[in-house]
TrEMBL record:
NCBIfam families: selA (TIGR00474). It comes from the Bacteria. Converts seryl-tRNA(Sec) to selenocysteinyl-tRNA(Sec) required for selenoprotein biosynthesis. The modification N6-(pyridoxal phosphate)lysine is found at residue 296. It is an enzyme of class 2 (transferase). One of its GO terms (molecular function) is L-seryl-tRNA(Sec) selenium transferase activity. Residues 7-46 form the L-seryl-tRNA selenium transferase N-terminal domain. It is found in: Cytoplasm. It comes from Ruminococcus hominis. This is L-seryl-tRNA(Sec) selenium transferase. Its EC number is 2.9.1.1.
Length: 469
């Protein structure tokens, strides 16, 4: 067959669109989208003819058109962002979306998303309200601060604090606290962006009160304290805490800004974890402005929470940058629901997934692992299922040295290598992201819920069956 004959084998768009199979697709996906995909697929065959010398390839492509059209459409309508099962044991996994929300909260969030809300409407007065009003009093109650403001994330919060309170002035920071958080967030760069001049004091390992004192000039607009959340300097070290700085800050009438990073609202040392600086402590210790993340240890939506003295927060509320960094209705709703749980610590520990995972007893995790193991064994799979003691991590740049005892379910099979297994589990409709333990693919059960077990069992069964053929 010559090329012209091959071109004539390509069906016309209108003819294809009339076919039963394609009509069915039209009902499902809509006419204009199907038409566009049909055109694209026909174009693909035309290009193939132009490039190809092998007529069987072309005829095969023509024959498979309905199939490739259907596949193309399915791919177009498959959400790119979807839920995954976190078997890594890293509780705040930034790549996996950090903090998962309570399901009940998520359901209420869906209603807010689908309907109108009083986001910026004062229902009592019947006039324009503030979106900040939904959580400001809760934040004040929980942290002891006078006022609060929430922006897009903590990086934005730090930028807003510096830009509002210290633009064109100097900000003193210890050299031991010039942190890089990752994702291009470095304190010196944020400082530059804010229009404030960074004045470094002390050394990497030691900074004294006198270092701060000597650096204060007429131009000093603030002292910034940064929690070194993702690393620790140990050994011959010294830093100056906020209460010690308070006197000199007061004397010169300059605010102390504290970036806590994670900022816990509960004392994690009660649950066998190292003590992470709490927001209440920072306020009580004399910080004038404290900022922290919404989706780290707080366990809520992505947000940057700023609490502190009314005079400073009010100034920030009026800054034009605040409008550019404001949170949307989903964040507003999710944050209010998350904070509400903290009114009672016991409730927070149970109902905020991050806190629940952090504090869950190793034995409870092990029982869940045992449950998955026995359900897998009932399937008589060509694999060996082993429980492995392992260590979970908090992640998200919080408590980097913390290891939490946990149990993983490891799967070893003669017919499927660990890397093949990893790849196949990642390709599932709801991917299962595991971890390698001694070269074996495994799932840390601390970050997996009981309700996810049936899906995991089914997926592993399918995977091993498809490896068998
Ligand atoms: C994580 C972190 C930030 C950035 O917070 P995001 O909410 O991720 O923007 C800033 N400062 C410190 C100290 C942090 O640990």
């Amino acid at each position: 067959m010559d090329k012209n004959q091959l071109y004539r084998r390509i069906p016309k768009v209108d003819v294809l669109l009339e076919e039963d199979g394609i009509r069915k697709l039209e009902e499902r996906y809509g006419r204009s989208c199907v038409k566009r995909v049909v055109q694209d697929e026909l174009e693909r065959v035309r290009i193939l003819i132009g490039e190809s010398v092998d007529e069987t390839d072309v005829l095969k492509a023509v024959e498979q058109l309905p199939d490739s059209i259907s596949k193309s459409l399915e791919l177009l309508y498959t959400p790119n962002i979807r839920s995954v099962i976190n078997g890594t044991g890293t509780i705040l996994h930034t790549n996996l979306g950090r903090a998962p929300l309570n399901r009940e909260h998520a359901e209420r969030l869906a209603v807010i998303a689908a309907e109108y809300s009083n986001l910026e409407y004062d229902l009592q007065r019947g006039e324009r309200g503030e979106r900040n009003a939904h959580f400001e009093s809760l934040l004040c109650r929980l942290t002891g601060a006078e006022a609060a403001l929430v922006v897009n994330n903590n990086a934005a919060a730090v930028l807003l604090c510096l830009s509002t309170l210290a633009k064109s002035g100097e900000v003193i920071v210890s050299r031991g606290e010039l942190v890089e958080i990752g994702g291009k967030f470095r304190i010196p760069d944020v400082m530059e962006q804010s229009g404030a001049v960074l004045v470094e004091v002390g050394t990497t390992n030691k900074t004294h009160l006198s270092d701060y004192e000597e650096a204060i000039t007429e131009e000093t607009k603030a002292i910034l304290k940064v929690h070194t959340s993702n690393y620790q300097i140990v050994g011959f070290t010294e830093s100056v805490a906020v209460p010690e700085l308070k006197a000199i800050a007061k004397e010169h009438e300059i605010p102390i800004i504290e970036d806590l990073g994670s900022g816990a609202l509960v004392d994690l040392s009660k649950y066998g974890i190292s003590h992470e600086p709490m927001v209440q402590e920072a306020i009580c210790g004399g910080a004038d402005v404290v900022c922290f993340s919404g989706d780290k240890l707080l366990g809520g939506p992505q947000a940057g929470i700023i609490v502190g003295r009314k005079c400073y927060i009010n100034k920030m509320k009026k800054a034009p940058l605040t409008r550019a960094l404001r949170v949307d209705k989903f964040t507003t709703a999710a944050l209010e629901m998350t904070l509400e749980e903290y009114l009672s610590e016991e409730r927070a520990m149970q109902r905020i997934p991050v806190l629940k995972m952090i504090s869950e007893m190793p034995d409870t995790v092990k029982q869940r692992a045992q449950k998955l193991k026995s359900q897998l064994e009932q399937q008589k799979l060509p694999a060996q299922i082993v429980l492995e003691a392992c260590e979970s991590q908090i992640g998200g740049g919080a408590l980097p040295l913390e290891k939490i005892s946990s149990t993983a379910v490891a799967i070893r099979s003669e017919i499927c290598s660990a890397s093949e297994m990893e790849k196949r589990m990642r390709a599932l409709p709801t991917p299962i992201i595991g971890r390698m333990i001694n070269g074996i693919w495994a799932m840390d059960m601390r970050t997996i819920e009981e309700e996810q077990i049936p899906y995991i069992v089914g997926s592993i069964q399918d995977m091993l069956n498809s490896c068998r053929i």
